[in-house]
Design brief:
mainly alpha; 13 helices; 82% helix
């Protein structure tokens, strides 16, 4: 992976962990997630209009835009529900950790990518680190009851989020070959906001939607811009690097998320999380130096 791709990944990871923290602190995470999409769509409309005028997508590009918008409807729905039901320090690693375990395999099988041996070691290190952060200290319980963590609805929604991440990572890797990466992220943001609007209004009501805005407007705007920036950087990196490398490397954000949980939410940061963070960073280094 090139140094430029690594820089984009690190910036994206920091932005991603930050907007997830902001959403976790919302009154209603589902409503907050819709507002951040809507605000980003409004604020970035001039950029979207210019890019659409200069580089209009071909019909195939529109197909990928529609597909990614539908996948992101599921992503934001599952992610917000997981945050409403469990801790950030549990939901975030599960949601972000499922993709790195599955995307490289799917990248090889579906996209016919080749993965260097050093990068394989890095991917394994990242995945091991993620699960150490998430499940360290509960290893014996997991051996006795492998499905124990799935009994909680928050954990199940986090796992579903990870599966959607795997799907849209593969879909978007192909989509950005047909559409400018920042136009792609703008159209998926706008499309997801429009598709979610009826659901949000029916499930939560107009008053709840207005209340979330009144309470969290500055945070919503910041989160919306960070969402746009975070995924725009990843999509740009995907135009010149393999999804098998980008997807695991960007999960260094789990370390950022764990640190934010400690510093802002005052969550514990025990030995297993320290070990897991070191493994994630080691894996990132191995992926970064791989050809």
């Amino acid at each position: 992976m090139t140094s430029l791709a690594l820089l984009f990944v690190l910036l994206s990871a920091g932005a991603h962990a930050t907007w997830n923290l902001l959403m976790k602190r919302a009154i209603r995470p589902e409503v907050f997630s819709w507002w951040l999409l809507a605000s980003a769509a409004v604020l970035m409309a001039p950029l979207g209009a210019v890019l659409l005028w200069r580089e209009p997508p071909a019909p195939t590009g529109w197909l990928f835009i529609i597909g990614t918008a539908l996948l992101h409807v599921l992503y934001f729905t599952f992610l917000s529900r997981s945050y409403a039901r469990t801790d950030l320090s549990l939901a975030y690693p599960i949601a972000r950790g499922t993709g790195p375990a599955l995307v490289p395999i799917a990248g090889v099988l579906v996209l016919r990518e080749s993965v260097a041996p050093l990068a394989i070691g890095g991917i394994v290190s990242v995945v091991a680190g993620i699960y150490a952060i998430c499940w360290g200290g509960r290893f014996m319980r997991l051996l006795k009851e492998p499905l124990a963590l799935l009994k909680a609805s928050g954990t199940r929604y986090a796992l579903l989020t990870g599966l959607v991440i795997t799907a849209y990572s593969l879909w978007d890797k192909q989509g950005v070959s047909y559409v400018n990466s920042f136009l792609y992220i703008y159209m998926l943001t706008l499309g997801t906001a429009l598709c979610l609007a009826p659901y949000i209004m029916v499930m939560h009501g107009a008053e709840a939607v207005r209340a979330e805005w009144r309470r969290n407007a500055p945070r919503i705007v910041v989160a919306g811009l960070l969402t746009f920036l975070a995924y725009g950087l990843v999509l740009t990196a995907l135009t010149f690097s393999q999804v098998s490398y980008i997807a695991p490397a960007r999960e260094v954000g789990i370390v950022f998320g764990a640190l934010l949980g400690v510093l802002v939410l005052h969550e514990p940061f025990g030995r297993s999380r320290i070990l897991g963070s070191c493994l994630v960073i080691l894996g990132l280094v191995l992926i970064a130096v791989s050809p």
